[in-house]
Amino acid sequence: MLCCMPGVAFVPALLVSWSSAAFIISYVIAVLAGHVEPLVPYISDTGTKPPESGVFGFMINISALLAAITMYIRYLLTEKQNETSHFVRSSCNMFTLCIGLMGCTGMGIVATFQELAVPSVHDIGALVAFGSGVVYITLQSIISYKSCPRWNTYFVCHIRMAISVISCIAFIPMIVFASKISMTKVDWTPGEKDYTYHFMSAICEWMVAFGFIFFFLTFIRDFQRFSLRISTEIHED
């Protein structure tokens, strides 16, 4: 199915499907192994202990790579559209790409440094990933509005902005509640100390994560009309 998509639409489609599978597979393995409670664990909790830690690390690193490729193609697409429409400054487009790549780097840190092994590094990576991600999709929503009506419909722009707003709203309590948790653990049970903070923060984390997934889903239509061509030149002496 991915191969039948025109242009480079298969790239965000692959990112969305792969990332969704990464979250779901690691969650299922962790729950079946009894390493986490089924009721809303942190995403990182589902990739902390073997065997799910290997699956989580591998798949999230691939997701980070796919996200970086998607963001770069989005940058090239905007630059190409901007040649005729001049709806955004090139420096703004580049800044948005850099913010997005910072988020991808944060994802790589989260996947490489497990929550219980190196908690401080893991938490910094998560903060960079989610914080940069929220800023990236917000900037992309603004750029989308600027490209209307020639390159985007207002309906798509409204959808992107709604996802951005929801993600921003969820990101703030995610950080606030997480900062109130006084211990680092994965096997949470209802009723224990700080469980409410953990539960609320985890809900917000899943909302932000799937907000990113749904946002990149809206790129598929745009990528259908964009193709990458690699040209080679042979110079004779």
TrEMBL record:
It comes from the Eukaryota. GO terms for biological process: regulation of autophagy. GO terms for cellular component: endomembrane system; lysosome. It holds the Pfam family Frag1. It is found in: Endomembrane system. InterPro entries: CWH43_N (IPR019402), DRAM/TMEM150_Autophagy_Mod (IPR050911). Residues 8-225 form the CWH43-like N-terminal domain. It is a multi-pass membrane protein. Keywords: Membrane, Transmembrane, Transmembrane helix. The chain crosses the membrane at residues 7-33, 53-73, 94-112, 124-143, 155-177, 197-220. Belongs to the DRAM/TMEM150 family. This is DRAM1 protein.
